[in-house]
Amino acid sequence: MTASARPATLLGIPLGDFGFLGCVLLSLVSGFLAFFASCFLAIVSLLFWNAIAHHPVSYADSYRYVALPVGVAVLVTAFFFFTGTWIRRRLTGAH
Question: Which residue, of 13, 65, 70, 77, has the greatest Cβ tally within 10 A?
Answer without folding.
Answer: 70
